[in-house]
Amino acid sequence: MQDTIAKYPLEPLRPVLELLADGEMHSGESLGEALGVSRAAVWKQIQKLEQYGLQLESIKGRGYRMPGGLDLLCAKKINSTLDDKAEALLRELILFDEVDSTNAQLLSLMEEGSGHAIAILSERQSAGRGRRGRRWISPYASGISLSVGWEFNGGVQCLEGLSLAVGVAIARALNRFSVPDIRLKWPNDVWCRGRKLAGVLLELKGDLTDRCAVVIGIGLNSGLRDSCASAIDQPWADLQQVKPGIPRNQLAAALLTELLPVLDSYTELGFGAYRDAWMQLDQFAGREVTLQAGNQTWKGVAAGVSRGGALILNMDGELRHFHGGEISLRGQL
Fold it and tell me: What angle (nearest 5°) sits at the alpha carbon of residue 196, between those of residues 119 and 163?
């Protein structure tokens, strides 16, 4: 497996970030010596970091500090934590400092015939996307912005329920750290204590009847700063508030460890292998819910999911199946 640190807009600032990541006070002189630049050049780099929403503290005569420090992504730490099977399945791991969208970058690579499995992680996304075109908030060095690319034979029909199976993999990864109260919301959200903790976005390229590439995007909230959290337009949960102290590199490795074997065997096993696990974590099981698609609305009681991943809605004794797409699900008050 290859591992790559890709160069992107913040890459020239990475050395000073790594020095400040410990949360301790560093004088301008010591930073300049470590970086091989003048104190004036250090000050200019500090100014640029503030433009990315990073909280910096400057004390005259003492230097600079990043309160609380930063938990930066590191390819070596992630690779060392993968289990043997995941390590064998992962062909390349790419880390970005900043990117428009990890999904968009990976879709471009998959179009070039880069094969599978490729994983991209980014410290920050400037144009991260969620389901139904929503913006995904991902400030620098917080949370997880992960995309994994995989090629499947057999066309799109063999991928039924895949987003739900990915949800099961995320739940299992979080269970490795004993994160409490994890639930799944159809078709592709992970909830914690009644609020959204993570989301899944699947995008496909290629021949949808034969060989196609799938990019699985995962966004997970962890350590969101107040200035960024205010932009989120729905109830949300933060991993660091629920279970503080989980290192981002270990979390990324756990997600890959659980997800890659799912992708490797999915053509053979399908969603049927994960259906029971999904239903055990169903946030809305047995509850009255509302489905909406455009101007259409359906109300009923959530009755689980089919072996193909369709939501089953009990509408006055009639069981109706609804597939993903642009359908939204809400619990009735």
Answer: 45
- What one-character-per-residue DSSP string does 16-30 give? HHHHHTT---B-HHH
CA dihedral 152, 155, 161, 165 (to 10 degrees): 0
Neighbour order of strands in the sheet with 144-152: 2-5, 92-99, 118-125, 144-152, 212-220, 195-206, 189-192, 182-185
Our answer to whether residue 196 is catalytic in this structure is: yes
Annotated binding site: which residue ranges?
101-103, 125, 129-131, 196
Domains, in order of start, for the chain: 22-65 (1.10.10.10), 75-279 (3.30.930.10), 284-331 (2.30.30.100)
Q: Are 70 and 17 in contact (CB under 8 A)?
A: yes
User: pTM of the full predicted structure?
Assistant: 0.90
Catalytic residue, candidates 183, 185, 196, 248: 196
Q: Which of 131, 183, 185, 248 is catalytic?
A: 131
Q: How far is CA 331 from CA 78, 200, 310, in A?
A: 37, 20, 17
Q: To the nearest whole number, what is the mean pLDDT of the chain? A: 88
pLDDT in tens, 274-283: 999 999 999 9
Residues 276-304 as b or e (16 or more Cβ within 10 Å = b): ebbeebbbbeeeebebeeeeeeeebbbbb
Residue among 95, 102, 160 at smallest CA distance from 127: 102
Show the tokens assigned to 86.
């995941």
Pick out the residues of the known binding site for biotin. Answer: 101-103, 125, 129-131, 196
Give pLDDT tens digits for 12-45. 788 899 999 999 999 999 999 999 999 899 988 8
